[in-house]
Prior knowledge:
The complex is a heterodimer.
Chain A: H1 2-11, H2 18-25, H3 27-34, H4 36-53, H5 55-58, H6 99-135, H7 137-151, H8 155-169, H9 172-175, H10 179-206, H11 210-217, H12 222-230, H13 235-259, H14 270-278, H15 287-314
Chain B: H1 2-29, H2 33-37, H3 44-53, H4 60-72, H5 86-121, H6 126-140, H7 143-157, E1 170-172, E2 175-177, H8 182-215, H9 218-225, H10 230-267, H11 273-282, H12 286-314
Antiparallel strand pairs in B: 1-2
Helix pairs in contact in B: 1-4, 1-12, 5-6, 5-8, 5-10, 6-8, 7-8, 7-10, 8-10, 10-11, 10-12, 11-12
Amino acid sequence: MPADTATTVTADAAPASGRIRRFLDSDIGWSFRKTPAAWISALVLTLLIVTAFLAPLIAAQNPYDLSQIFIDKAEIPPIWQEGGEWPFLLGTDPQGRDVLSAILYGSRISLIIGFAAVLVSMLIGVGVGLLAGFHGGRIDNLLMRLGDTVLSIPTLLMAILVSAVFRGLLPPELRDPFAAMVLVLAISLTNWVQYARVVRALTMVERRKEYVLAARIIHVPAARIMLRHILPNTLTPVLVSATLNLGLAILSEATLSFLGVGMPITQPSLGTLIRIGNQYLFSGSWWLVVFPSLQLGLIVLSVNLLGDWLRDALNPKLR
Amino acid sequence: MPAFLLKRFLNAAGVMLAVAFLAFLSFRFVGDPVDLMLNEQASQQQRDELRAHLGLDKGFALQFATFVKNAAQGDFGISYRNQQDVFALISERFPATFELVLVATFLSLAIGIPLGVYTAIRRESLLAKALQFGSVLGVSLPSFALGIMLILVFSVTLQWLPAFGRGEVVKLGWWSTGFLTPSGRAALILPGITLSVFQVTLVMRLVRAEMLETMRTDFIRFARARGLPARSIHFGHALRNCLMPVITVTGLQIGNLIAFALVTETVFQWPGMGMLFVQAVTFVDIPVMAAYLIIVSFIFVALNTLVDLTYAWVDPRLREDALSGAANAR
Lengths: 319, 330
């Protein structure tokens, strides 16, 4: 009767579809339900992502459409303070842009760059790790030395340098449109090494196993063995690193934008918004810098809490 | 041991060569140095003269060799922006960054170790759980946002502490220090805290993990059986056995802190070499960027090598297979 008891547990939650119910019934799902930090942060993160991606629908204005901005609405404080005005819930900046709308649009940029950077660094890292681990020998030595060198430079410095070099290579009129891409590259080129190390270690173990030997005997191409047979067995730790790295990637993007080598003022991410707000720190417009910082902190915090939980939940030693 | 020493040194030298190559590439390919140094009215002859003077008409390999040779002698060329010797510019700014890093390191140990011990021995208490959560919060809030919040509260609103600059500094030879004047010390507080927050959480987590491990060992059980007071068990025996990794990580992190100081320096307008670097990036002042990259990486690699060698000296087992990779926590 284990199946029946399991259904009664989830039945009162919601008429969930089969897939969600199966997730909640699994070991991971159980741990998820029992860890408030995990489901609360998952909930908050979902909310933040949905509001960020629905920004054009729910924001009071498009802060970068000049026809919607009125200069006489400049520097209005948040609505609960004296002088606050509807619909500018969190106030406006000196150009008359709604801060809440700017935050929603900015979060969307920050999240897209963060996800893209993690994806690209994962692709590079997994590729390098598979090649190094599967072939071994000279290829392995070369690739891993390269990784050691990348790790010998402080990551922040490396990211700034890569983005400065790419920006320098682009003609000035193309710098702004390609800013997001440059950031993704700068962050990925500094973060791929740990994926490569994890995948390489696991690949070296897997390639000696019988299923790989069997595949080699019947002449399955090496690329196919790596991608179809070995890769699926290395994915769990890769996914844990990816979750923990998402927070780091979002923070790196924000830091680069804050320093002025990231997103331009015309397409501001949360880091750019904080950079702009920082210039008005002494004029009393505290809302320009506090709210974007809080939003950034909230996104990274919920990602980190989720990542910490996932790492513990998937670690067989802690079960 | 000599073989290990040699291997480790060669390794470090190889990494430094790779870093120099990266710096050289950016130097060579981001914009034309001749265009950046001369104004638009310069004649073709002036251009050619400068090109020859900078050695840019030579072959690629020869240029790189010259670059490495000069860099090893501390000659990084002249800043494009203010025409000063780059090495002099950086060494003039170095004391400011170093003192900031020193304060942050001190704070991280002074706060991180007690918190780590507490969260380990009172693992189930509410405060320990709050501190654990606080440590996740500490790594989630970016340091520049934290710095801005501190300025907002303590400088703008309460007006207790300065929001920018180093205050008054005293010259001691080529070194300038802010420790000797009241305004210099006050100016160090907010940037020091900002830079140390990540480090505090790191030390706290490390001490906690090490303490939990040590508390399970036999010698602690024997100390308990002997009836030693809890205080002497925790601090005299357990903590002392955790300090080695803490010291190692703190040492390794100094390189990272120097790099990360550039964010704090930007927030607090701190006249250190990090701010010099950020300004150089904005103006595409490649000689300064290249020199900063090489100097910071050198400090980073030197610390890593030193730690590895100390470990190998202390623990002969490590001489066989050298510790690979650096503890690059961020």
